[in-house]
Amino acid sequence: MNLASIIVVAVLMSCFFFFIALPFGVEREEHDQGDFSGIRKPRLWPKVGFALLMSAITTLAFYLADAAGYFDGILG
User: Fold this and answer.
1) pLDDT at 8 over 70
2) CA–CA gap between residue 28 and residue 3 (Å, rounded)
3) pLDDT tens digit sequence for 37-56
């Protein structure tokens, strides 16, 4: 894997895990009529940290799998 491939895999994995983590731990504001108006505490920094950690792990796994030759017949 060259540097460009590593960056692409890391960016794609971080976006993937960030969008997966978005709905967890959200507190919504509730009004008298029972309507939901918005999000009170989105807690984005833990989600960003989770996404970066998981993308680092999966990028390392892809890199090690490519170095071991698991993708030789698939990706050429």
Assistant:
1) yes
2) 41
3) 677 788 899 999 999 999 99
Residue 76 falls inside a structural domain: no
Strand 27-30 vs strand 36-41: parallel, antiparallel, or unpaired? antiparallel
Query: Does the residue 8 lie in any domain?
Result: yes
Q: How far apart are the first and last CA of the chain?
A: 12
Q: How far apart are CA 22 and CA 60, in angstroms?
A: 23
Around Cβ 22, how many Cβ atoms within 10 Å? Answer: 14
Question: Over pLDDT 90: what percentage of the chain?
Answer: 58
Residue in 18, 76, 74, 11 with CA at minimum distance from that of residue 46: 18
Q: How far is CA 53 from CA 16, 25, 75, in A?
A: 12, 18, 26
Give the residue numbers spanning the domain of 46.
3-71
